[in-house]
Amino acid sequence: MKIFVTHSPKLGNAKAYLLREILVKAAQNAGHEIADVANAELVLIVGDDLPHNAQLNGKKVALLNAETAFHNPEAVIANAQQEAVDYVQPVGVAESAVESVANSGVKNVVAVTACPTGVAHTFMSAEAIEIYGKKQGWNIKVETRGQVGVGNLISPEEVAAADLVFVAADIDVDLSKFKGKPMYRTSTGLALKKTAQEFDKAFAEAKIYGGEKVSTSAEGSNSDEKKGVYKHLMTGVSHMLPLVVAGGLAIAMSFMFGIKAFEDANIAGGLPKALMDIGGGSAFHLMIAVFAGYVAFSIADRPGLAPGLIGGMLATTGGAGILGGIIAGFFAGYVVKFLNDNIKLSQTADKPLDIHLEVCSNRSIEKEMPMLKNTVS
């Protein structure tokens, strides 16, 4: 018998994937053939409710309990063959937001993923989003903002054609190129574990992005503030991490010549000492400054970066350590944010600088003209 295995909308992606693999293997061991939905003679649906899917019309379907399917898949499949019924679309259940929008012609989706470390969740959530999008028949492209930089860059043409911008980020990321597009923001964890549900919400709740910073949650001011503090810290950590890795690697390479080889400049031509200076003296010395700078950047955007870097360097040179860096980053960020929010400069505030530069330029030209004339003559 040709069998197609799917799951109800409320079942999480991870659990659905695991159960599908178990059922597929059990079905194949029993001599059944795994087919696509169009050619299937029996559709096994794992979960508590039927999906709203027009492709199942006219198919024999069996609703399976997830726990029973996990512990005894062979018996579940055997019972399903006997108890399967003709599929009837759920009465009174509205078509999901994703299906309704997709059916109305929405096909182009772009996504951005980013996590604090820029390693695991960034790429795992990107893969989950891409797989789900392709299953829906969308044109989907996922841009990753990881430790190695921007991967799979979304072009301006793709942004212009996008019907939805799906952002799964646990840190602040630059989204300016998506200004004016419908955008939905969530976390990498939800995008990874509940991809279908998040896309349902995305099409229902997406709002036009105007270039402002958007919070990923709206659960109350206290909750937002706690998540904001965590987010600022993680932004600092994510930018500090490359220095930690590079510095640690340089120190480890120095230890290859001996634990105390860096103390003798004559060993291996001074290479162990140079590696220790690079790792411990330079990379680790910058670590707290970069951390504080990007904490301030997360709070106050670009104006907070320089004060945060300076505060972090002061914490390093003053021996205040990482706690000093945390204090410096938050202090610099919130002070700059306060100043930006309360001091409004006129659009002509930078004119004196322009005039000064123009005067200096004219004087320089006047000064050089006699020399040029003499050279020509």
Automatic annotation (TrEMBL):
Q: Any idea where this protein resides?
A: Cell inner membrane
Q: Where is the PTS EIIB type-2 domain?
A: 109-204
Q: Does the keyword DNA damage apply?
A: no
Q: What is this protein called?
A: protein-N(pi)-phosphohistidine--D-fructose phosphotransferase
Membrane topology qualifier = Multi-pass membrane protein
Cellular component annotations (GO), alphabetically ordered: plasma membrane
- GO process terms (BP): phosphoenolpyruvate-dependent sugar phosphotransferase system
Q: Which reaction equations make up its catalytic activity?
A: D-fructose(out) + N(pros)-phospho-L-histidyl-[protein] = D-fructose 1-phosphate(in) + L-histidyl-[protein]
Name its species: Cricetibacter osteomyelitidis
Q: What is its EC number?
A: 2.7.1.202
According to its UniProt record, where is this protein mainly located?
A: membrane
Keyword Transmembrane helix belongs to the record? yes
Q: Which residues form the PTS EIIC type-2 domain?
A: 229-377
The stretch of residues making up the signal peptide is: none
Pfam families (alphabetical): PTS_EIIB_BC_N, PTS_IIB
